[in-house]
Specification:
The complex is a heterodimer. Chain A is mainly alpha-helical. Chain A has helices at 2-18, 22-45, 59-82, 90-112, 116-134, 140-171, 181-187, 193-211, 218-226, 229-255, 260-284, 288-309, 312-342, 353-356, 358-371, 378-392, 396-422, 438-456, 460-469. Chain A is built from 19 helices and no strands. By secondary structure, chain B is mostly helical. Chain B has one domain. The chains are: A mainly alpha, B mainly alpha. The A-B interface holds A 117, 120-121, 124, 128, 135, 138-141, 143-148, 150-151, 154-155, 157-158, 161-162, 164-165, 168-169, 172-173, 175-176, 192, 194-195, 222, 225-226, 281, 284-285, 287, 290 and B 111, 113, 115-116, 124, 128, 132, 141, 144, 148, 151-152, 155, 158-159, 161-162, 165-166, 168-169, 172-173, 175-176, 179-180, 183-184, 188, 191-192, 195-196, 203-207, 209.
Chain lengths: 475, 209
């Protein structure tokens, strides 16, 4: 099925690229969503069966693939409203949608891949298609963001490749077999420690470009700021999960070897620095989209802390990644509406949102509660588990600074969001407000509803899948 | 013979540290391509002939001819000034690259692994770190791309070290190479030239907090 899926995605993307008609474009996009969902459902019922030699839909892949398919629907349909209706021209539109389908398909394939080199290839493809999306507006700002994104991502992917080479040296004569993630897990204990450590560091550093951690987080920030909002929603949710998948799968291998404790320290340092940097910038930024991008860095830092802490942290990590994807994409979609009303992303010019767009303002309020992990948000549950894991693991010296930093982040985000909602804006001409379609808000309500529902009352099948995804780490 | 080629490769890196003109950089890249051709030919002689031919063609066509020709074309088309314009004096660059070489050499001495030829490891890491150093110490975007190609060459050397056991990884490295050279150079440098007239990183530093 994955062969059919990838072929279909490439064909649809090609047709989207050459087609200039708006109606046909909509038809093709709908077709792609149907293919995406058919693929997701098929993989759910064929869990654990290897396809084409390199792809194996395990529990983690299915969870993230479902997340991707859910976010895909609003991301694609809302694109019609967000990509500057007044400036729309058929050429940029067709490039946009072609890149979008390729991006989504590559993300899906990267989730399912069971071979580190194949994961790497698909992550290269996400870089390619993402940069086409960032360059969408074709002005100097988007040019700069695209250039930085391509350059930093290329260097990071080179790092991953060097890591793969070191891993193959560590595997020695056991050969290519060990580059499969599940084979790596079995052989991890016998690997040469020196090369395995080197491989882990390089692969980790490389994937941080996608995950958004120190040291390679910079590229993603500009990209999320400059890309059209639906694309930015994908970048800060499902595309970050690609980096997570890469690190998680290699970490499963590491956990079975003697370098486990050392790797935990590396991850923890990177995660702590990420949260620290995110705090500093969230306190400082004036651009609301960049603020959300930094908030993603904070969340991914928490995820990595949970991974390093172990125990119940593993369960919390997978839950957190999924819920964060829903919450952050909903928030980005809403920021698209905010931009349509105020024509600005600078917090100085935003305000009194309740007056201009009531459903949108309610979304912002709920999303604020969700993203800062206050109850009833599901992220509260996962963060609570992560903190429990840190506490039980004896990492108090790291837990206390983290809690202080998170408090600062909540304060800064609260200040900015409440300003957007209640304080009157500066120099705002009310007469030119565009009417926003209420249908868009509907999808955001569903996404935020999922965040709360999956956290408070998770269905049994969801819990089972998460437990199965982390079963290799608990032994 | 391989040792001679690889040591020459390291010497080209020292030369890049003190080179002044962009065209010198490009010529060094072409020369590195020839060196890599030699190394790949000697090292991978035993693997499948079709695969070997593919790898050798890549080193000659892409690394030695296509990338340098294209870089020259971009430099001419965008009328980029000939100087590389480093932030630091050349003498300091020379010392830093030398320090990188010595440090890598010392690190490699601590490795107790018999089945890896250490010289590959040393040369690859030297290329990686001097490439990163050149990226942070030069001003023009085009020099960043050149430094990236140097890093790629280092990665190629490292992949040759495991090439006889896993030719697939060498092919993957080539995939990375072609992907980046087509994409980074072909599409993007042209675009940068269209939007921003004189290509200089100072013009690409508006996005910040």
């Amino acid at each position: 099925m994955i062969g059919i899926y990838l072929t279909a995605a490439v064909i649809i993307s090609g047709l989207l690229f050459f087609n200039r008609n708006r109606q046909v474009n909509r038809l093709l996009v709908t077709l792609f969503i149907l293919v995406q969902w058919a693929f997701t459902i098929y993989e759910y019922y064929h869990k654990g069966i290897t396809e084409l030699g390199y792809f194996k839909p395990d529990a983690l892949a299915i969870l993230l693939l479902t997340t991707l398919s859910i976010i895909t629907i609003p991301a694609l349909f809302h694109s019609y409203e967000y990509i500057y209706p007044e400036k729309e021209n058929p050429k940029t539109r067709s490039i946009y949608f072609a890149a979008m389908t390729i991006l989504i398909a590559a993300i899906g394939a990267a989730y399912l891949s069971n071979h580190i080199a194949v994961t790497w290839i698909f992550i290269e493809i996400t870089t390619l298609s993402a940069s086409a999306l960032i360059f969408h507006r074709r002005n100097s700002g988007s040019l700069e963001a695209t250039w930085k994104y391509i350059f930093v991502c290329s260097i990071s992917l080179t790092f991953v490749f060097i890591g793969i080479l070191f891993l193959s040296i560590a595997l020695g004569h056991s050969g290519e077999q060990g580059l499969y993630f599940d084979a790596l897990m079995d052989q991890a204990a016998n690997l040469n420690t020196f090369w395995f450590k080197l491989a882990f560091v390089f692969i980790f550093v490389g994937f941080t470009a996608k995950l958004g951690l120190v040291p390679m987080y910079t590229a993603g920030i500009d990209a999320k700021d400059k890309a059209p909002t639906p694309a930015a929603a994908l970048f800060s949710s499902v595309l970050m999960n690609v980096g997570f998948v890469g690190i998680f799968r290699i970490y499963v291998g590491v956990a079975h070897s003697s370098i486990h404790g050392w790797a935990n320290n590396v991850i923890m340092i990177a995660a702590f620095l990420s949260i620290f940097i995110a705090t500093v910038y969230v306190l400082k930024v004036k651009n609301i989209k960049r603020m959300l991008a930094y908030s993603s860095i904070e969340h991914m830092g928490l995820v990595m802390l949970g991974l390093a802490a172990g125990g119940i942290g593993y369960y919390a990590v997978v839950l957190h990644v999924i819920l964060h994807a829903f919450a952050k994409s909903a928030l980005f979609f809403q920021i698209g509406q905010v931009y349509n009303i105020y024509k600005s992303k600078n917090l100085y010019y935003l305000g009194s949102y309740f007056k201009y767009n009531l459903p949108g303002a309610i979304i912002i309020l709920i999303a604020f509660i969700c993203i800062t992990a206050m109850p009833p948000s599901g992220l509260f549950i996962s963060e609570f588990y992560i903190f429990t894991a840190l506490f039980k693991g004896g990492y108090l010296f790291i837990l206390i600074p983290i809690l202080i930093l998170l408090t600062l982040i909540i304060w800064a985000m609260g200040k900015n969001f409440l300003k957007l909602l209640f304080t009157p804006p500066v120099n705002f001409d009310e007469s030119k407000i565009e009417k926003v379609s209420q249908l868009e808000t509907f999808s955001q309500f569903i996404l935020l509803g999922l965040v709360i529902y999956l956290g408070i009352n998770p269905p049994a099948v969801f819990v089972d899948l998460i437990n199965e995804a982390v079963k290799n780490l608990i032994f | 013979m391989i040792n001679v080629l690889l040591i020459t490769f390291v010497i080209t890196l020292l030369y890049i540290a003190i080179a002044n003109r962009l065209l010198t950089y490009v010529k060094i890249l072409a020369f590195q391509g020839i060196l890599l051709f030699g190394v790949a030919f000697i090292e991978l002689l035993e693997i499948n002939p079709i695969n070997l031919a593919f790898i050798l063609l890549e080193t000659i066509i892409v690394k030695t001819i296509a990338i340098p020709v294209f870089l020259t074309y971009v430099i001419k088309k965008n009328k980029i000034t000939r100087e590389a314009e480093p932030f630091v004096p050349n003498f300091v660059s020379l010392i830093i690259v030398t320090a990188i070489i010595i440090a890598t050499f010392l690190i490699s001495n601590s490795i107790a692994d018999t089945h890896l030829n250490k010289i590959y490891f040393v040369v690859a890491l030297v290329a990686l770190f001097s490439g990163l150093y050149i990226i942070i110490s030069r001003k023009k975007i085009i020099t960043h791309v050149i430094a990236y190609v140097i890093i790629e060459n280092g990665v190629f050397i490292l992949s040759l070290a495991v090439g006889t056991e896993m030719p697939m990884l060498v092919n993957l490295g080539i995939l990375l190479d072609i992907f980046v050279s087509v994409f980074l150079l072909g599409i993007f440098i042209n675009k940068v030239g269209d939007v921003v007239k004189d290509i200089d990183i100072t013009q690409l530093s508006n996005l910040k907090d």
